[in-house]
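Continuing the batch. This is chain 6 of the set; chains 1 through 5 are on the previous pages. Same settings as before, nothing changed between runs. Recording input and output for traceability.
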Amino acid sequence: MKKTTVKIKIIFALAGIISAFGCSIADDMLGVNEAILSDRVAPAISVIEGISYAFVDADNTLQLQVSNPESGYTYYWETTGGTIDGEGVTVTYTAPSVAGNTVVRCYGSKDEYVETRTAEKTIHNIEILADNMLWLKADAITGLNSFDAVASWTDSGTVGNVLAQATEANKPRYVADSLNGRPVVRFVDNTDSLFNTALTTGSGFGVAQSQITFFIVFRVNSYIAASYILGARNGGTNSFPVLYHLAPGQQLRFYQYSAYNASPFPVLFGQTNMLSSVCDMTQAVVADKLKIWLNGTEQVDNINVAATNPTINRLYLGSLTANNSFVGDIAEVLYFSTALSDERRTQIEAYLTEKWGL
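Output for chain 6:
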């Protein structure tokens, strides 16, 4: 019996399971044998640093890779915005100059008789530095081993403020691989703090501000009465332009420009939280002057608001006064001198949520 085999080129996309048919001709008879390619794993694009956010005005590159490459495949890349540098399994993506989402695609092909496969990933390009007064990232701290003392925490933005602690016994600790594979700054007891009593003027510091937006990713590890996660002062007075106050009963009280939530909302020990706030003292309606979100959910509350807008010239992280320090972890802090739009606020919340695994 004479047998002839016909090769068929198969092309398929990322999703789904497909079938291949081997066609054989024997004695004027055509037989079709179906083989399910269930052992084939569709390609996927992953970000080496783990988050799919790039900044159009700051760190604007991401390292992308094919997370499950197969031997013998050649990989080609393209993007709907920004640029791709390199070739093969790993490439560098550079964000465009304007905010917005782009789609990166990768094509893997072997030869003309074997399938070509496609993967794609959405990259979120967001603006981070415009109106930014302070940007503290625990994963930007370098030169420390886990549980080393943190003498200073440098601004990752452009203003250049540094929060520091000269007293050895009052320094918080750097803890590696603590939250979603990333480090945190841990405030261990009621004496730990970082502060700056000579903030760089400009970008909102040193002048009265009617608007501020603030984000902080934190975890409460223990309760100490009236402990301050972050506080700010106008000179030597407790004007509380920005302050998170852990009240009794595991509750969080928020002050901003002497506006505060009259009924504190609960946070749980050991739970990582993202708190966002937008303060706009120019709003006519009192309820619109201060808005607070916990893990992306707006906290509806009775807001008390003062009439004046104090000048921020001293900033404290982990405390405001002696023996009232926060006991817990801080992962990231962002502070803006304007009332961010809902669109921009939710973009930054999404970035923090993905980065810290919230």
